[in-house]
Amino acid sequence: MTACIEVSNLTKRFGDVVAVDGASFAVEQGSVVGFLGPNGAGKSTTLRILLGLTRATSGTATVNGVGYDQVARPRHVVGAVLEAVGAYPGRSARNHLRIEALAADVEPARVDEVLDLVGLRGAAGRRVGGFSLGMRQRLNLATALLGDPQILVLDEPTNGLDPEGMRWIRRLVRDLAAEGRTVLISSHILAEVSNTVDQVIVMDRGRVLAQSALADLDGSLEEVFLRLTGGDEDPGRDLSVPRSQGGISR
Amino acid sequence: MTRLIHTELLKLRTTRVTYALLATALSVTALFTALSATVGQSTARPIAGIAGQAAVTTTSGFAMIIAALLGALAATGEFRHSSATLTFLAIPDRPQVLAAKAAAGAAVGAGFGLLAALTTTAIGLGVIVGKGDHVRIGAGALVGHVAGAALGAALLAAIGVAIGMLVRSQLATVIGVFVWCLVVESILGDLVHAVRPYLPYTAATTLGGTRLGSAAFGPGYEIGTQPALPFIATAALLLAGAVAVAFLAARTTLRRDVT
Hints:
Number of strands of chain B: 0
Oligomer: heterodimer
Strand order of the largest sheet of chain A: 5-6-7-3-8-9
Largest interface: A-B, 32 and 27 residues
Mean pLDDT of chain A: 84
Structural class of chain A: alpha/beta
Strand content of chain B: under 5%
Order of helices and strands of chain B: HHHHHHHHHH
Low-confidence stretches of chain A: 234-250
Structural class of chain B: mainly alpha
Number of strands of chain A: 9
Radius of gyration of chain B: 19 Å
Helix content of chain A: 25-40%
Shape of chain B: elongated
Distance between the termini of chain A: 18 Å
Number of helices of chain A: 7
Radius of gyration of chain A: 18 Å
Mean pLDDT of chain B: 89
Largest sheet of chain A: 6 strands, mixed
């Protein structure tokens, strides 16, 4: 299998704070990978570096072997749903997508297709400012899917959603994965991804602690995750010592 | 690049603030022209003369400030509403985004300048004719003033985009644009007459036929007989200003992390 996402010795410092600390991992084409870690683990920063929005202090993050800024027509290659992404509140959902389609060099007809896909056709004429959190997240997904990309990067896509919204996103991710797309989905909620992904990457305090196939885990995802990250039992431990327990391949 | 400019134009067309700014620019232009042509008449330049008629048909300065504001809002809005993330995901080449935004801002800014110039020309001529005076200002001069106002507004809009990309903060940029145009240029131009032709807002208004300094705001502003720079030199100066600020933005804040 070929890796379509590769992160190598990635480090990002914000002043004295080390947000990402020598992280390395690879995501193979066609895999569905859960990018797991507690809040503040460095997942979002890593993804933003991968997508060219944040500059790495050192190391590399590539898509199909090149930096995101070198990807031709990037929306056709990678679709991303990130936290803290907005749309002009006075603009309708349809106009928002028309703009994003034009920017991404996508046929205008695709706008209605993605509106149908995320169930927003009925609200297409409404202003985004009046949307609920769940509707905004659907709009973000519609934007990510405009270019019909083979790689999807989803950063905490169910944050703030009600159970129905969470279930809808889980189902959509499963459908997208079934189409053979590569999905990298970050979350701090294990139950959210445990039924969706076939691989996991565990990150904490800026470091990648493990990458493994879900089936190879020694125990439940929650047990392994807590063992790796220390949970509440050992909050002050030194993560510089590589861990090998839990049947996790590094 | 054409696609990117169309994208930015679509953003401006689907943003209510564009229409609100246009309405503000035209209504204030109409008000200022009416006041200038009636209660604000100068004995030195009566409306019956060419100088007076030129003054009341070229009150497009405020629309140029609004054009600069439009450019600033188009740029800073991306950061205020966190849509810059989506923009840079689609177009990772940030300087290209800046260039497209400046071009689109200039195109819409030109429209603002054009419509404001037509408004002030129509109202000014209406007052002249209404008072029974002969129209002494030539058609060629009027057309030149309208075209110049469109160019001046376009260039100020491009400068507004560049400043917005450089500063990012919408509040700081909006306050900065107003304070610079309404206060700083008035004070600087009054204190040091030699710099007056080089001040961006003041210079832009001369492209629309306004006498150097007469579009200034503020008390005690003295309008002398100092000539403006030649038309081409003024346009080149403003273009150079837009390019310089855009270059500075591309080399500094545009490279920063997008959060």
